Amino acid sequence: MLEMTKDTAAAGETKVSLKNLQLSFPDQSGGVKQIYQGLDLEIEKGSFTVLLGPSGCGKSTLLNIMDGLLQPNSADEILIDGEDLRDRPDLSRQMAYVFQGPRLLKWKTLAENAEFGLRGLGVQPRDRWPELMERYFAAVGLSEYMHHYPSQVSGGMQQRAAIVRAWVNEPQILLMDEPFSHLDEITAAEMRRILVDLWRAEEVHRTVVFVTHDISEAAQLATDIVMLTPAPSSICFRRKVDLPWPRHIESDEVMDLEKELRKAFAERAGVRF
Ligand SMILES: Nc1ncnc2c1ncn2[C@@H]1O[C@H](COP(=O)(O)OP(=O)(O)OP(=O)(O)O)[C@@H](O)[C@H]1O
């Protein structure tokens, strides 16, 4: 019970607020594909929010909008801590992105890749770099491999290094786009445990927005689940999750939650997983 109180300590404050998002893209037949028609989304500070939805519903696009990489056609607000990202593009420096693949520079060691992340964002003073690198490489169990090249370590280790590259900046918001989807299930399960341990270890949790179309993964990770319909997407189901960690993939609680999510998808979005 104590654990749950700590993990929901920041409950209530809004970190990200998107209001009335409108976005369309040209489609291949010369028409227009509507992605959002008035989508609203709030993300709570310190939450581990999982965006769950079928392929093409616009999950990655939402991360791109939150990071300021993409502008919607229109929006009433794109707020980070109450300030509009369109007026304050510098707010994106509070964020870090982890992609589906590790995207490491293969001619640099894991440590040099992380340092590249530090230099790129430029939010950490240089004299903190060694301490930050040591801390976060140790946290993901990669201390011994810091000076190896990507080709000398496994795919899972490369993805751990990609997480370090994002985490060393100590971002307030971590945007993660299906970061474990290319890994085998055993490695992915280990990565989820490492990520949750990293997130929980900090007194004030960072806000994580994690995209997946894997219901089981959502049940293992989330404190908040946001379920999207196919495009034009709307939120068809939203739920908080109070299950304690570590969550085992085959535990009754996780499997019950998965069942509930599958049912919600089928009933509210007409999508079967
Ligand atoms: N720059 C772009 N130009 C044209 N269409 C785009 C662009 N970016 C995204 N789309 C389209 O917008 C829709 C939503 O894309 P997005 O990548 O956000 O979906 P997703 O839910 O993350 O899907 P997946 O789970 O398959 O990654 C898709 O139909 C995609 O083809």
UniProtKB/TrEMBL annotation:
Q: Report the residue ranges that make up the ABC transporter domain in this protein.
A: 16-255
What GO annotations for molecular function exist for this entry? ATP binding; ATP hydrolysis activity
* Spans traversing the lipid bilayer: none
Enzyme Commission number(s) of this protein: 3.6.3.-
Q: Which SUPFAM superfamilies match?
A: P-loop containing nucleoside triphosphate hydrolases (SSF52540)
Origin: domain of life: Bacteria
| Pfam families with a match to the protein in the record | ABC_tran
EC top class, in one word? Answer: hydrolase
Q: What InterPro entries does this protein's entry cite?
A: AAA+_ATPase, ABC_transporter-like_ATP-bd, ABC_transporter-like_CS, ABC_transporter_ATP-bind, P-loop_NTPase
Instruction: List UniProt keywords, sorted A-Z.
Output: ATP-binding, Hydrolase, Nucleotide-binding, Transport
Family, according to the entry, reads as follows:
Belongs to the ABC transporter superfamily.
Recorded protein name is Bicarbonate transport ATP-binding protein CmpC
Name the gene that codes for it.
Answer: cmpC
